[in-house]
Amino acid sequence: MKTEDQLIQARQDKLKKLQLLGVSGYAPSFDKKQTVSETLEMLGRSVKTAGKIFSLRTHGNIVFADLKDETGKIQLFFKKDILGDEQFDNLDLLDIGDFVGVVGEVTKTVAGEVSIMPSDYVLLTKSLRPLPNSWYGIRDVETRFRQRYLDLLLNDDVKKRFGIRAKVVRAVRSFLDNQGFLEVETPILQHLYGGANAKPFKTYFNALDANMYLRIAPELYLKRLIAGGYDRVYEIGKVFRNEGLDRTHNPEFTMLEWYESYADYQRMMDVAEGMFKHVAKEVAGGLKIKVDKHVIDLSGQWPRIKMVDIIKDKLGLDVIEMTEAELLDYCKKKNMELLGGETKGQLIFKIFEH
Predict the structure, then answer these.
(1) 3-state class of 69 per DSSP?
(2) Following DSSP, what letter does each residue of 190-256 receive, concatenated?
(3) DSSP secondary structure string for all residues of 3-53
(4) CA angle 300, 297, 283 (to 5 degrees)
(5) pLDDT for 170 beyond 60
(6) Among 128-132, 157-161, 288-292, 327-331, which range has the highest average pLDDT?
(7) Under a CB-based contact definition with an 8 Å cutoff, are residues 336 and 350 in contact?
(8) pLDDT value at position 244?
(9) How far are the Cα atoms of 31, 56, 283, 290 from residue 163, in angstroms, in the given order?
(10) What superkingdom does the record give (predicted)?
(11) pLDDT at 135 over 70
């Protein structure tokens, strides 16, 4: 088996041969007319599309390849009598991972698979590093998150998840915009951090000769906008907390906060419930969402339960009657992460969250 260095060298040698033939290996542009998903619906018609090669199979005077873009995958069906000898022979200089553009007719193979039969093709980008086939369908969490580009390339579910996230954010914006909220951007670099009980990331601003902090929440600046005369504001933005790292904690994450004048907590619950239902309809197409083996039904009026009541029901703790010292002692016995200085209300919330 060839080493990675040998595979890279072989690809570099192919690139040199292509360049001697007048092919740069890195085309400046390509006028892509159709996506792969659109191409799959254009049987019998001519198309011009592009993508990355994910497989190459030679059978005499025919070469099969799988072409993928962000919308899907389609088979390429190269025939020597259509391409001509030179273009067909140059297919040997292509590798899995190369980007190519093709022009041809959408047809069906003898096996019945919708394919493009190219009349012409162009190498758009020569890939000098081989795709890690042995990692196909990456499952190792460390590899997935450290080499996210490979995760996206090889796991279609991850790419779908990215698309769903974009739809969720778009639906949240449309809901709040239609409710009369104004989207704003507030400072990320701050002289004083606040709005949450969390440790900040600290940095230094050379021009001002001052210590600065990455925000831990947008709350304080949003409230200043309310004080400045705005009735309804919201922000979707990055916040940073210099704390733990696990499945539910990340030092950098996206937060949504919204504030409304003249509204109580019941109104805020109305907005939250309405937002979830709107997002579900826009993204999932309805109010029933499947999560693993469970189906969550978001329809109807959501039950509203007091935090102290559910703690008492589930844990048998009467947190209203307990002192701050008793609550603190309970949290420590349960190994809850505390920053120090928590109020009674914050301790109750910590127990509820835990």
Answers:
(1) strand
(2) ESS--SSS-PPPEEEETTTTEEEEE-S-SHHHHHHHHHTT-SEEEEEEEEE--S--BTTB-SEEEEE
(3) -HHHHHHHHHHHHHHHHHTT--SB-S-------HHHHTT-TTSEEEEEEEE
(4) 105
(5) yes
(6) 327-331
(7) yes
(8) 81
(9) 24, 28, 10, 17
(10) Bacteria
(11) no
Is the whole model's pTM more than 0.85, yes or no?
no
What distance in Å separates the CA atoms of residue 134 and residue 143, rounded to the nearest whole number?
Answer: 13
Q: State the amino acid at position 65 in one-letter form.
A: A
Residue type, 266: Q
**C-alpha separations of 327 from 196, 249, 292, 308, 337 in Å:** 20, 24, 35, 13, 13
Structure tokens at 273: 């419930």
Top CATH class of 4-125 equals mainly beta
**Long-range residue pairs from 309-313, CB within 8 A, at least 24 positions apart, any chain:** 310/352, 311/348, 311/351, 311/352
Rg (CA), the chain: 28
pLDDT over threshold 90, residue 245: no
Q: Report the distance separating Cα 31 and Cα 29, nearest Å.
A: 7
User: Is the Cα torsion angle 107, 108, 114, 117 positive or negative in sign?
Assistant: negative
Beta strands at 114-125 and 72-79: parallel, antiparallel or unpaired: parallel
pLDDT of 134 reads 46
Per-residue confidence (pLDDT) for residue 14, from 0 to 100: 96
pLDDT(137) > 60: no
Domain 157-303 annotated CATH 3.40.50.300: no
Give the tokens for residue 310: 């559910």
Which two tokens mark 342? 């928590």
User: Rounded to 5 degrees, what angle do the CA atoms 151, 155, 158 make?
Assistant: 80
